[in-house]
């Protein structure tokens, strides 16, 4: 095989185009990707520079807070453009990487939505990224199948879950493609190729190109995504608002800008999601220079703790006021083959999901099909005949303050807890560099 780099206009592909690549990196698809990279990378780089400056300010003692200059947006009377019919019921969503067998199993699970993930749960080896695009294309077309070594055939059931694609965050590069000597944004690579290859088929069956956006830190980043989406719609003569997105609130700075984020993306956004585990990580990372805000051992930092409860309740109140969904967070537990251990897992999941449903979340996340029935039962009981809980306004809640969002919870900080953190970090990195889906292996629950 020819190992020479492939250059197309201003993009340079450092890997050769084999048969798999030729299915995805067509001339038309690469042309569209090139347009997006050329038009939107410079501003993306400025947004990343703004993150660095914001963190420096926090390190110097300035705590995150609501933005006084955007108070008119928070206090204004406005709503998002709207939510398509096939996105109205999202009571249970399953997440996982874009590997072929996992895509089929997730779409066949007892869930409403499958979030196909090019981000946290996918080690971005070139072959995995390309194969992931092929797998999602085949899933959209209903032709995806997989045969294992024993000859077992996996195929889609007649009524699979709805597909949403999570692209990589703004900070993550696609190192196998460069533009003017730098790696292009992985977010644009994932978005451009999934959108280009699937929007026609999705629209033809009454759905649409739907996305999850991770790791946002500021409303300006949401505005950048709105520009990307609008450009794509105009480029292919699609009505404004054809592309829909759910954005994860999983960084500490973003929790203070939820109204602004919804407003910036109002033509395209349908909801926000409590990305709890990354939010806890972001809290630790963002406040690393503030010794009075050190969290206890990770197993006691649960969603019933005051600062996380405030985060969940504020997200619900903000979203529902604007006509957007408020999605609950991840149950990253994995079912056990040991009956007693599995019972404990399911009871933890049930309690966790009941808390979310009672707070007013419209749906929740799981990472394994074996948890689907438990999560579905909880939300079926909470929703009754309703498709969602947009009617839960939480208007009676007292205003949530910055200090409530920033106050650490009580709990022990132990050597055992530190050892567990180190073990999880090492296991995660080992899984990542081995190209294995890391989340479930590493106790991220």
TrEMBL record:
EC number: 2.3.3.9
Pfam families: MS_N, MS_TIM-barrel
Matching InterPro entries: Malate_synth_sf, Malate_synthA, Malate_synthase_CS, Malate_synthase_TIM, MS_N, MS_N_TIM-barrel_dom
Occurrences of domain Malate synthase TIM barrel (ranges): 163-407
GO terms under biological process: glyoxylate cycle; tricarboxylic acid cycle
Domain Malate synthase N-terminal: 10-71
The UniProt record lists the keyword Repeat: no
Pathway it works in: Carbohydrate metabolism; glyoxylate cycle; (S)-malate from isocitrate: step 2/2
Swiss-Prot/TrEMBL keywords: Glyoxylate bypass, Transferase, Tricarboxylic acid cycle
GO cellular component: cytoplasm
Record field: catalytic activity: glyoxylate + acetyl-CoA + H2O = (S)-malate + CoA + H(+)
Molecular-function annotations in GO: malate synthase activity
Highest taxon of source: Bacteria
Homology family: Belongs to the malate synthase family.
Record protein name field: Malate synthase
Species the sequence originates in: Citrobacter koseri
High-level lineage: Bacteria, Pseudomonadati, Pseudomonadota, Gammaproteobacteria, Enterobacterales
